[in-house]
Amino acid sequence: MGESETQREWTKGAGSQIDWRGRAFEGICLGSTLFGILMVLVLLVYVTLDAFAITQPGTAPWLDWGFLTSAHSRFPEEAGIYPALIGSIMMVIVIALSAFPVGVGAAIYLEEYAPDNRLIDLIEINIGNLAGVPSVVYGLLGLALFIRTLRMPSGSVIVGGFTVGLLILPIVIISAQEAVAGVPDSQRRASYAMGATRWQTVRNVVLPASLPGIMTGTILALGRAIGETAPLLMIGAAATIFSAPSGPFDRFSAMPRQIFAWAGQPSDEFQYGVLAAGVVTLLAVMLSMNAAAILIRNRYQRQ
Amino acid sequence: MADDPIDGRTGAVSRRNVLAAGGAALAITIAGCMSDENPNEGSGNGGGGSGSGDIVITGSSTVYPVTVAMAEEYEQENDVSISVDSTGSGGGFENHFIPGNSDINGASRPISEEEQQAAEENDVNPIEFQIASDALTFAVNPEADWVDCLTFEEVAQIWGPEGAENWSDVRSNWPDEPFELYGPASTSGTFDWVTENVIGEAGAHRSDYEGTEDDNIIIQGIEGSQYAMGYFGYSYYLENEDAVKALAIDNGDGCIAPSLENASDGSYPMARPLFVYAAEESLQNEAVADFMRYYIENSSSELVSEIGYVPANEDLVEENLTKLEEATGGGSSEENASGENTSEGNASGGD
């Protein structure tokens, strides 16, 4: 620490030219950082203005309680997102319950049990590759596997959840692997030293210590899952449905699918007002999921 | 040293309980819905006999707004769950209707022979109902003051496979500037209709145009350039009358502008029929048959004209109702088992 301070002193004293370059570089890096935040702010301001019709004083806000509790209508003032909102939430539950155990199981195997050989290396590389496969390809996989081969009902919550679950599975595995790898070896050794078996060590030491990290990674992945549109188009999720699904085998529509359908409507009220209200709802759900992830992380890291 | 694992463990137990409870809840939900599932699946394949249930509708994005409006009105009076997906006419036939996963498919063109055959091989028997007409609209930028009317031949010359490069290639007094063309993608029924009825050969369309599934993109493209042209359904023109200029079409009887009146009296040459196809097997399900009856009866109402299409006339409604009764095999008499009051009311109103 002392060394870096002397270095800074030296830089300051070494003439204005070097200082100027350093400042410029720092400025560019700061600009890059702010760029991301700026874009999110522009998006949020833009859709929020549209959703609450702030720039059009005569118009009632598009996003109100009625929007959240009613179904699509051909009259923009009456259109709502309720069935798609419930559809999205049910789909996320299916995703969480299907991707979480498989992902965590894979991560624990790879970190705690797997031998150090080429096959395991190959598997790990492929999990990384899978994380980069375009989502529309997962949609085709879901169509071929769940609907055509396993004859599950097309456009149902369970098919949507399984398909998008496959999509986020690599992300869940990788983040869970990092969380498991982050458990200090000394804790494992302490457990073994007390006579615990490997199973007891995983159950009592590794899993509890890594669970906050696993949960955070999974919830962030679910945040991505709730916004996926392309796989839902492929598996035949409905553009518009008037009643919320009552079980996982019912047909459903999800928020991004409904928003996409509104974007194709001819009238401006749908393309700007209703669409923006849908986007704000989707963002609100997604951001609250991310907030939950941060809360979980902070709560358990304090220990 | 012993504290840490113990602390971690108690924490883990409570979290595990939450997970276990969640899992159990889902298992119960799934189990509960398993028994519901069979009739739902049956409706796609025409098996189910229950009055209420799911109705699955796919198909043309042009017919979609009509179907959604019908479904919206129908759901207010009836206890069914209708899902409407916009997949394109061909996409809906191939991926959903022919495999037996949807009950009704909208189409902005008649079903093709291949599709008919494929459906029959899958034991799906499509029954055609024409429910409205559309005035297909060709439009240019409002600043394109040199053009107000095109002949049928000129349209074919511009959009055909060896399409004209410059405006001046079509008429010499038009500007010597290249066309910027926007139109529907080749999966669209609108595209199929234009190639078969205007250009004269199925699938023959120039390929150097901007093809899109989203008609709003066509409008935006036309708005963006003085030398642009595009085509789409009349409802999109109605919403964008200030942004683009619709062209009149001359098929030998002078220039006729696109409008609902001109399309319904048959004078506008680009009027095209819009269809829905119902699987005969699905119509044995009283819920599907009743919705279809409602759809046909209301296809002559302003519900259709408000969207920007020409409603069906009374003769067509009568013809469709007869077709429907034949397909259901007088099924309306069997509805006493589970049909709602409203469905009986609708049935008698139609007679």
UniProtKB/TrEMBL annotation, chain A:
Parts of the chain that traverse the membrane: 28-49, 81-110, 122-147, 159-184, 205-226, 272-296
Gene3D superfamilies: MetI-like (1.10.3720.10)
Keywords of this entry: Cell membrane, Membrane, Transmembrane, Transmembrane helix, Transport
Domain ABC transmembrane type-1: 85-293
Any one biological process term the GO annotation gives: phosphate ion transmembrane transport
Protein known as: Phosphate transport system permease protein PstA
Cross-referenced PANTHER family: PHOSPHATE TRANSPORT SYSTEM PERMEASE PROTEIN PSTA, PHOSPHATE TRANSPORT SYSTEM PERMEASE PROTEIN PSTA-RELATED
One Pfam assignment: BPD_transp_1
GO molecular function: phosphate transmembrane transporter activity
Family classification: Belongs to the binding-protein-dependent transport system permease family. CysTW subfamily.
Annotated Gene Ontology cellular component terms: plasma membrane
Membrane-related topology note: Multi-pass membrane protein
PROSITE patterns hit by this protein: ABC_TM1
Subcellular location field: Cell membrane
UniProt source species: Halalkalicoccus paucihalophilus
Superkingdom of this protein's organism: Archaea
InterPro entries: MetI-like, MetI-like_sf, Phosphate_PstA
Signal sequence, renumbered to the chain: none
Automatic annotation (TrEMBL), chain B:
Entry keyword set: Signal, Transport
Pfam families reported in the protein's UniProt record: PBP_like_2
Residue ranges of the region described as Disordered: 87-121, 325-351
Keyword Transport: yes
Compositional bias segments (type: Low complexity): 333-345
Key word Hydrolase present: no
GO MF assignments: phosphate ion binding
Signal peptide residue numbers: none
Annotated PBP domain residues: 49-297
Organism domain of life: Archaea
Stored Gene3D superfamilies: Periplasmic binding protein-like II
NCBIfam families: ptsS_2
Annotated protein name in UniProt: PBP superfamily domain protein
Biological source species: Halalkalicoccus paucihalophilus
